[in-house]
């Protein structure tokens, strides 16, 4: 198959699909038009339950086989493992950046005064330990994210692992003297 014949086939298919696209747009506008007419005619007035809060106790998308389990968990203030794990991940990330902020303040305070060689060496050792600990924490958070993704029932709710190298670079930039 030559490049020209492929381009011709693409053009032919595009021409055929134009009609479908026009039909879809016209169908959508037709439906919207019907809804607007019904609103103006007052057909949505006085509907059953109008003005009352929605009952969101039951999830209509929840599989029947787990509905009872989730109801029991909810009544006892528990959440599915993956949700609890997601909350832990969020808390770990927040705590991580709070600790970075504390060390950043410590760095500014340390260098606001005069320091001798010994105290500077001590600071450098403390900074290196701090960076090693932060790296280990990020790696641990990534393990939790992997666990979360394995237990999460929906792909679109999964999380990306943290890029440890990039995150550590951000930390280094924040705690520079």
UniProtKB/TrEMBL annotation:
The segment(s) forming the DnaJ homologue subfamily C member 28 conserved domain are 30-96
State one Pfam family annotation. Answer: DJC28_CD
Which superkingdom is the protein from?
Bacteria
Q: What protein name is recorded for this chain?
A: DnaJ homologue subfamily C member 28 conserved domain-containing protein
Species source reads: Candidatus Syntrophocurvum alkaliphilum
Its taxonomic path starts at: Bacteria, Bacillati, Bacillota, Clostridia, Eubacteriales
């Amino acid at each position: 198959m030559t490049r020209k014949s492929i381009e011709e086939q693409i053009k032919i298919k595009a021409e055929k699909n134009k009609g479908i696209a026009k039909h879809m747009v016209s169908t959508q506008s037709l439906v919207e038009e019907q809804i607007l007419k019904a609103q103006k005619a007052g057909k949505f007035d006085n509907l059953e339950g109008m003005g009352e809060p929605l009952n969101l106790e039951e999830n209509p998308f929840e599989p029947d086989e787990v509905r009872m389990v989730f109801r029991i968990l909810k009544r006892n203030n528990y959440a599915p493992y993956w949700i609890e794990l997601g909350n832990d991940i969020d808390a770990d990330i927040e705590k991580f950046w709070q600790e970075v902020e504390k060390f950043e303040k410590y760095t500014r305070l340390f260098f606001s005064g005069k320091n001798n060689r010994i105290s500077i060496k001590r600071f450098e050792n403390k900074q290196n330990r701090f960076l090693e600990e932060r790296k280990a924490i990020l790696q641990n958070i990534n393990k939790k994210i992997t666990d979360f993704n394995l237990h999460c029932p929906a792909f679109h709710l999964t999380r990306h692992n943290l890029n440890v190298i990039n995150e550590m670079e951000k930390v280094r930039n924040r705690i520079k003297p």
